[in-house]
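pinned: reference chain
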Amino acid sequence: MKKGTRRNSFLLGAVVLSAGGFIAKILGAVYRIPLTNMLGSYGMGLYQLVFPMYSLVLTLSGVGFSMAVSKMVAARMEQEKTIEAKRVFTSALIILFILGVLNSLILLLGGDLIAKIQGNANLGVLYRLISPSVLLVCLVSAFKGYFQGKMNMAPTALSQICEQVIKLAAGLYLAYLFMPDIEKAVGGAVFAVTLSEGVALAVFAVIYFFDARKEKKALPLKKTAEQPADYKPLMKELTSIALPLTLGGLIMPVSQLIDSALVLNLVKAGDATTLYGIWSGPVHSLLGLPVVLVGGVAAAVLPAISRAHVSGNKPLMDANINSALKLTNVIALPCVLGFACLSRQIVRLLYSALPEADLSLAGSLLALSSVSILFLALSGTCTSIMQGTGKIYYPLMFLGISCIVKIALNLILMPLEQINIYAFAISTTICYLLSAALGLRFITRRQNVKIDVMQTFFKPLACTLAMTVTLLLFSVFASDFVNTTLGTVTAILAGGTVYAAMIVLLKVFGSVNKVYGRIKARLTGRTNEN
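pinned: its structure tokens
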């Protein structure tokens, strides 16, 4: 595969994953709006308190195997070892099935104990309802890593969308069915997570069936030419790669679990569960929207860089790294300043059923924590870059240091009545700022990657500043209008239009003709050397 085609393959994969993630996140946001309005801040607080421990158990189940499979499959596809790539997938399925069963039992049998330790006995039944999804997510991870390693991002995108559609439909129906009993309604919404993961697994299984049948026709009678059917070495290699990734993945769930315990025990102003519901519900959902988009870039860059690294193609690897960082900034920067300028209006637009005090607090938290979007996005992309080049322990170390700082800040700030829940916004921003700074420094200093600062950072920033001026003009000269639903939507559309126009004017992705030529060549299967 030629250089232009490989680079375009990464870019297309990033776009597909980002688009799928964006659609899924929009569906998730659409789901959370009526769910929040239905359950209220307390109900959402109860709902969200399940997920720190759930995420921790998922990580213990070996979610890091998804990235390990992606990396190993990408390397073998680069070497044209198709059958061994499939054996990597089979090995991962076996390991993840065992881990999934064991960790599902942790939530099923230990849910009540975990709930007591966490400080809210109502969580026990919720853990039992969500426990089967641990096994389902484990199996989904194997499929996801396999297809992403083959640079086929469409199955992941499709499964994400299907998962969110089912969660939205089932979650709202079950919550509505059990209202006005808040605890039962929350239980219905939690059980919808298990149903949605089952659908995601079914989507992957169907796609894999047709993909395997297609490959079988393309590779007749060539099985003995590949590696021997010994799965032990592959399992050992998978485990050696996945272990540090899993340890790294444990850091954030542990941090979030500690956060959920801290807020219930240290926050002295107001109802702690309600305050946590405001932060983890409306605010965290909005902060997560651009991060999911950037997650597509991070997921696509890992196999792309792994292939370039295996083949020793340093120029291609550097080009992919610059493209990933540019896409990260193009997505994250406008979200940072957009949320900072219109935080209260956006929260009011989406969560109008919440009490006025909750809306005001959510708007303030969103504005204060908006800059964390950029740092979290850069941190995730840098992590994938380092993992793609085999530097799997450094992201673990950087994120570990950052989370220790985050927990320390929460311990100091959360008991202060004048700060309380705002401690989350402050500590989260500083945590990811530190993680992103350490990652970028390592990539540029230790891995000798030359970053085109003008193309990667300054041009997206200039486009964002033009958008920000547009939003500020609306706020200054049409403040009453902006505070209406129509005004908020109009301001967002105007800012987005200016941003898109500046992207074209400053040629952030090259000239229009050049970009069109790349897309056309990719769609028609022709090689592009640019």
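why pinned: Confidence is low (pLDDT under 50) at residues 1-8, 221-227, 511-530. Residues 3-60 form the longest helix (58 residues).
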